[in-house]
Specification:
Blueprint (H helix, E strand, L loop, with lengths): L4 H5 L7 H15 L7 H14 L2 H10 L25 H8 L15 E7 L1 H6 L1 E12 L14 E3 L8 E8 L2 E8 L8 E3 L11 E12 L8 E4 L14 E7 L6 E3 L2 E9 H6 L1 E7 L2 E7 L8 E4 L14 E8 L6 H12 L3
Parallel strand pairs: 1-9, 11-15
Antiparallel strand pairs: 2-7, 3-6, 4-5, 8-9, 10-11, 12-13, 14-15
Helix pairs in contact: 2-3
Length: about 350
């Protein structure tokens, strides 16, 4: 079951950013492991705050539910990122949580991308492969993200002496502090190119159009979301975000879906209902012969095994045919006489 981040922080869905921040501070102070609190609870609180304090992530969460799985950019108790505190004063956090941060380095992560794909009913049942064209930040095709002109060498970054990190001092209400941050000059790699890539000018990344192949699994439902890890935007010196594909399934003129079964309506004349018959039905995957037993009533069902929605590689749901008996609105004199005779027989 998806987590309810509002419930975790104890705030209403309409809570302001300030209310979210206050709720987080109170709970973080209570559950922080360095103060004897519950580490798993603290991580859950932190995860909720990272989503609800970010306007974009909160909007996507409100719309789609919890689509930000473990790679969604939130930090754990061992690597809390003060840069994501959205207005928190470092001194306030330090005052509340003492040795709260500074023991880990958060890996940079590219932006997630959300798109929608429209499918017809048959494609949703049996699956399909789609190719979509995305405009996104991707690694430079020339230097492959290194930022260096191909064939040239790199040299040690003089700003960080090849460490990839630098020390940064600051002050809080408790006094001076020192923390280690990534070197912006070399983007935490410890080295810089001797000659910058002419294609991306040393950035390592570029905005470009990229074709992506998306495999839609059989049996997907309308509104479901496919996650492609690493399919989002990239960031120099970090990891790629994810691509989320929301599936929109068109309605079918004949079939509806109920779980793994496909349901269709079949109207038959009174004579067929009384005497029975054999019909050729256009199923979702081809024509099949269906025997209609004598004496069937309106509202009864015929079940054809294994002609519904695939549940795995070996099994499928059923095709369910809902019978309705058509009563004629007009009768010829001959037909009326025959019906009257049947009526006399108690039929």
């Amino acid at each position: 079951m998806a987590k309810d981040y509002y419930e975790i922080l104890g705030v209403a869905r309409a809570a302001s950013k300030d209310e979210v921040k206050k709720a987080f501070r109170k709970l973080a102070h209570k559950y922080h492991p360095d103060k004897g609190g519950d580490e798993s609870k603290f991580k859950e609180i932190n995860e909720a705050y990272q989503i609800l304090s970010d306007d974009k992530k909160r909007a996507e969460y409100d719309r789609y539910g919890r689509v930000f799985s473990d790679g969604a950019g939130h930090a754990g108790a061992e690597g809390f990122d003060f840069g994501d505190m959205n207005g928190f004063d470092f001194g306030e956090i330090f005052e509340d949580l003492f040795s709260f941060g500074g023991r880990g380095t958060r890996v940079k992560r590219g932006r997630d991308i959300s798109i929608e794909v429209d499918l017809n009913f048959e494609e949703s049942i049996f699956g399909v492969e789609r190719r979509v064209l995305l405009t996104k930040v991707a690694f430079c095709s020339v230097c492959q993200g290194s930022g260096a002109e191909p064939g040239t060498k790199t040299k040690s970054c003089q700003t960080c002496n090849g460490a990839g990190t630098v020390k940064e001092s600051g002050r809080s209400i408790l006094g001076s502090f020192m923390r280690v941050v990534e070197c912006k000059k070399c983007r935490a790699t410890g080295s810089i190119p001797e000659e910058l890539c002419r294609n991306c000018r040393g950035a390592g990344v570029m905005t470009k159009r990229e074709e992506v192949s998306v495999k839609i699994p059989p049996g997907i439902r309308d509104g479901e979301i496919i996650k492609m890890s690493g399919g989002g935007e990239v960031v120099a010196g970090g990891i790629a975000g994810d691509l989320y594909i929301r599936v929109n399934v068109a309605r079918h003129h004949l079939f509806t879906r109920e779980g793994e079964d496909l349901v269709m309506d079949l109207a038959i004349p009174v004579s067929e209902a009384i005497l029975g018959s054999e019909r050729v039905i256009n199923a979702i995957d081809g024509q099949i012969k269906v025997k209609i037993p004598p004496g069937i009533d309106s509202g009864e069902f015929l079940r054809i095994r294994g002609r519904g929605v695939p549940s795995d590689e070996k099994r499928r749901g059923d095709l369910v045919i809902r019978i309705s008996v058509k009563t004629p609105k007009r009768l010829s004199p001959k037909a009326k006489k025959l019906i009257e005779e049947l009526q006399g027989e108690g039929i």
